Amino acid sequence: MCDFTIIIPVYNEEENLFPLTKLLVEFMEKCDLKTSVLFINDGSTDGSQQKIESICRQNNGFKFIELQENKGLSAALKVGFDYVESPWTGYMDSDLQVNPDDFLRLLPHRHHYALVNGIRTNRNDSIVKKISSIVANRFRRIFTRDGIADTTCPLKVIKTSFAKKIPMFDGMHRFIPALIQLENGKVHQVPIRHYPRIYGKPKFGVKNRLFGGIIACFIFLWIRRNYITYAIKSKAV
């Protein structure tokens, strides 16, 4: 069994997959943890699946799960969390806007935190995307009080036992730090690099990034108010 599994949701990113694989292989050669990659093809309608299958045939430690239809980022992450067996889980997007080498910045903190969350510095996005993300992040922080600067940063390292406990709902990916904190897990933030998108199209616009996020905030509030945690004092079972 490997020590670290990187979950990579994919939705119509065929042009990015081969360059991404090259970066992943380079990272795996540097990393002192035995690492595997799990692509979650979220119902892509382009040539992503054919490229994923080719990558997995040619590279040890690369696997995939193909969903029957597009279910969204949160669902793709849930699938990954359900299937990962390594003690540590990584998550990154497939759009090449973050570099897997930056896991080397996050992994040294893994023993002290349930989640190590990246913070994108010098973001290379359009003005509209930057503004909508800033507004959405500030709005989420008001609701969650999680203290996280970049909660949707697409580069994270999570203790798998915590990842498997995350309550799943549509939009869950926006609240991973706050949901980890509901389980009394500690969260740490580390600056990472961010790059402009070269190939493919963004999957989140103002409508689903901002307004979808606002709706998800109310779902999170209900979960936080009704979330069950307990500590056992003693037992004889």
Q: In CATH, what is the class?
A: Alpha Beta
* Total domains: 1
Order of helices and strands: EHEHEHEHEHEHHEH
Approximately how much beta-strand content do the residues carry? 15-25%
CATH H-level superfamily: Spore Coat Polysaccharide Biosynthesis Protein SpsA, Chain A
Average predicted local confidence, pLDDT: 89
Low-confidence stretches: none
Q: What structural category do the secondary elements indicate?
A: alpha/beta
Q: Describe the main β-sheet briefly.
A: 7 strands, mixed
Please count the beta strands (DSSP E, at least 2 residues each): 7
Tell me the distance between the termini.
31 Å
Q: What portion of residues is helical?
A: 25-40%
Indicate the overall shape: globular
Radius of gyration, whole Å = 17 Å
Topology:
Elements: E1 4-10, H1 14-30, E2 35-41, H2 48-58, E3 62-66, H3 73-83, E4 88-92, H4 103-106, E5 115-120, H5 127-144, E6 155-159, H6 160-163, H7 176-182, E7 187-192, H8 206-226
Parallel strand pairs: 1-2, 1-4, 2-3, 5-7
Antiparallel strand pairs: 4-6, 5-6
Helix pairs in contact: 1-2, 5-8
Quick structural gist:
The chain is an alpha/beta fold and 237 residues long. Helices cover 39% and strands 17% of the residues.
Notes on the structure:
This protein is of the alpha/beta class and 237 residues long. It has a single domain (4-226), classed as Spore Coat Polysaccharide Biosynthesis Protein SpsA, Chain A. The chain is 39% helix and 17% strand. Helix 1 (14-30) links the parallel strand 1 and strand 2. The longest helix is centred in the C-terminal third of the chain and has 21 residues, at 206-226. The two termini are 31 Å apart. The mean pLDDT is 89.
